[in-house]
Amino acid sequence: MTTVAAYAAPAPKAPLERTTIERRAVGEFDVLIDIKFAGICHSDIHQAQDGWGPGIFPMVPGHEIAGIVSEVGSGVTKYAVGDRVGVGCMVDSCRECVNCAAGLEQYCLKGGPTWTYNDTGKDGEPTYGGYSEQVVVDENYVVRIPEGLSLDVAAPLLCAGITTYSPLKHWNAGPGKKVAVVGLGGLGHMGVKIAHALGAEVTVLSQSLRKKDDGLRLGADHYYATSDPDTFEELAGTFDIILNTVSAPLDFSAYVALLRTDGTMVNVGLPEEPVQIVLQTMFGQRRSMSSSGIGGIAETQEMLDFCAEHSLGAEIELIGADRINEAYERVQAGDVRYRFVIDAATI
Ligand SMILES: [Zn+2]
Ligand SMILES: [Zn+2]
């Protein structure tokens, strides 16, 4: 075991503070990663505040990890010391169920995958995330960060990137398709970049026009304010795909009415309460309402390669670890363009 510095929430809703944690010894198929950068995802805040039910404390959040391999186990074949690598939301799964066999480890049927933090590993120990100096991960749950991507702007791709890439691919975003992205935050800004790079015609649906210049610069073709009722009239029956990245409850029927026949609204932002929808809105045009969670390991690698090929990094604000609590407050206030990334050298 190795003792490493980390930032942890000692209890639900408590500010994060500097501490130390134990990382397991590097096993036969493990990779030891010197963490260079860790993104701050909104779900880090939800979990540190017990928003998704009782968490495991102390909690070291962070599932947008980019770093350099500093040691490998004797059985490791995929990575070598010095490799640039990433770790996302999961660090293990059963590896045997049909979903794991199909590369859908995020939908592992044996109780889900082992999450990068706020979970219990196969060794019975709590998992700790990326707000730390080092992490030990089985090589099968590590991905390679291509040379064309800087590690700091690559880190948020490990959650925000794959969470938007996977549904856009699954529902065939591409040339000739009209994609709406609801919300221009950490997830939404990557949704815009990726949908644009896939060749789709991209519209941002945001509460106001406050970030319109950014949206167009990031690749959107159109930008509408959802606070303006005319928007819903003008865009009725328009989109093949609506990618909703907002976790606040919406008038879902109003959004679904913006889909064309056979269109799908896929929700990657999750309200805490059950949602309501008028089914007639779907019935009339065979529309669908769906949801999607991150992506598998192979698809995460595919996303990183795609982003490198198209020079798509996240838009980030790099901070020292002593500013994590301030960053949490700013994320909750919607005051970040578009992802905070912790410089792990400051932990
Ligand atoms: Zn996340
Ligand atoms: Zn499985």
Distance between the termini: 19 Å
Stated plainly, the CATH topology of the largest domain is called Quinone Oxidoreductase, Chain A, domain 1
Bound molecules: zinc ion
Number of helices: 11
Describe it for me?
By secondary structure, this protein is of the alpha/beta class. The chain folds into 2 domains: 2-159 and 314-346, Quinone Oxidoreductase, Chain A, domain 1 (Alpha-Beta Complex); 161-291, 3-Layer(aba) Sandwich (Rossmann fold), CATH 3.40.50.720. It has 11 helices and 17 strands. The strands form 4 sheets. Strands 3, 4, 5, 8, 9, 16 and 17 form a 7-stranded mixed sheet that branches. A 6-stranded parallel sheet has the order 12-11-10-13-14-15, covered by helices on one side. Strand 13 (239-244), helix 8 and strand 14 (259-267) form a beta-alpha-beta unit. Helix 4 (160-170) crosses helix 5 (186-197) and helix 4 crosses helix 10. It is globular. One zinc ion is lined by residues 41, 43, 63, 159.
Search tags:
single chain, alpha/beta, Quinone Oxidoreductase, Chain A, domain 1, Rossmann fold, 2 domains, seven-stranded mixed beta sheet, six-stranded parallel beta sheet, 17 strands, 24% helix, globular, binds zinc ion, EC 1.1.1.2
